[in-house]
Amino acid sequence: MVRQREDAPETEGKLSDAKIFEKQSSDGVSWTVVSPIVFTYKITQCENLLDPNNDTLLWGHLDEDHLHDIKPQVVKRFIVIDDTVHQLYGAKVKEYFDSRRVVYKILPLPTTEENKSLELVTQILQEVHDFGLDRRSEPIVAVGGGVCLDVVGLAASLYRRRTPYIRVPTTLLAYVDASVGAKTGTLPQRQLSNGMAEILKMALMKHRGLFELLEAQGSQMLESKLQSSDAASACTTRVAIETMLEELAPNLWEDDLDRLVDFGHLISPQLEMKVLPALLHGEAVNIDMCFMVYVSHLRGLLSAEEKSRVVRCMLGLNLPVWHQDCTLDLIHKALNERLRHSAGSPRMPLPTALGQAEIFHDMIEDDLLSQAHHMWTSELSPVSK
Ligand SMILES: NC(=O)c1ccc[n+]([C@@H]2O[C@H](COP(=O)([O-])OP(=O)(O)OC[C@H]3O[C@@H](n4cnc5c(N)ncnc54)[C@H](O)[C@@H]3O)[C@@H](O)[C@H]2O)c1
């Protein structure tokens, strides 16, 4: 909508579907803007990312249609890379950009959970500012695990609005939980299990077939480091990404707080921070999921047999199923904290069968919580075995 001065010639025009509503009141005038926002992002799954003939790192963020419009004289890229990944692949990354004649800067950073901080974001911002990027056509590239992708994403959005941003996930967890990209062959086993936790989450919430695949072949997949030549691994990562996108895409701004992807994320943030750096993100998520499986069982949603199958599957994926610091007191505090951020109503995703779930809006009764904690501890704590 275009507002016009009274003496201007009358014209009609539409800039966008945005609407502006004006209201006069005794206090003054107010304008309310209703602006439909279309948000487009692209996910590319590819091999040989650092092959000089592969365009993904340069143009992977653009649609085919836009690609033809952009032919800059000089191609600039700013790359933030996790320190460990830099040690492993830094030379290849450099070789790639050199061979494509790109003007680039590579910034290796210690992007681990302990260092995930605003200082890191500020450092990136300063370096990007010194290097200088065109806000529309020159993306920031992040290469690393979930921490690297998170901090660089925040920096990109703070630098200039809508600065394009390419994520290259290098851990399994980062790969399946929002993006896809690099191989995982160099990852230690513990990091692979860590990523498996987020895959198991989607399996328990939405996909019985995926659960059965993890149950039957999870251990072998870990042994083979989920290389794509193995059909089960390729199917697992693909279904994990698809189920994750089905949940995330319609609710990008989290307008709807009823999110199945929050399973395993109600108690785990408190636990993870309390014992940092003892538990990886996915490990804390798994402990939370395991406890909630006991809650589901005591609510009559899962049979004893189903509960045992989930626990066996978790153990097969080398994931922790219990932790001494996940006390009843911590669980109470975490759930209350969660309630404070849930617009007044509890929102608890719980499995109702293998591969099916519902969001429950009632608080778990104290009695049931302590029964679940007791049963969980007596069945799974190392002392009680
Ligand atoms: N934004 C989202 O949607 C989203 C979703 C899930 C998780 N997260 C965040 O992601 C983080 C967890 O991610 P993560 O598990 O990838 O942890 P991470 O980023 O800390 O990486 C784990 C470790 O692996 C190392 N590493 C990374 N790639 C490697 C490789 N190819 N070979 C060897 N070592 C490698 C890193 O240096 C680090 O020490 C958490 O902070 C979590 O909050 C964000």
TrEMBL record:
Per its UniProt record, what Gene3D superfamilies does this chain match?
3.40.50.1970, Dehydroquinate synthase-like - alpha domain
The entry's keywords: Lyase, Metal-binding, NAD, Nucleotide-binding
Q: Which cofactor does it need?
A: NAD(+)
Q: Does the keyword Metal-binding apply?
A: yes
Q: Which residues does the UniProt record annotate as the domain 3-dehydroquinate synthase N-terminal?
A: 109-185
Q: Report the superkingdom from the record.
A: Eukaryota
- State one molecular function term (GO): metal ion binding
Span of domain 3-dehydroquinate synthase C-terminal: 195-334
- Which processes are annotated in GO (biological process)? antibiotic biosynthetic process
This protein is called 3-dehydroquinate synthase domain-containing protein
Q: Which organism is it from?
A: Mugilogobius chulae (yellowstripe goby)
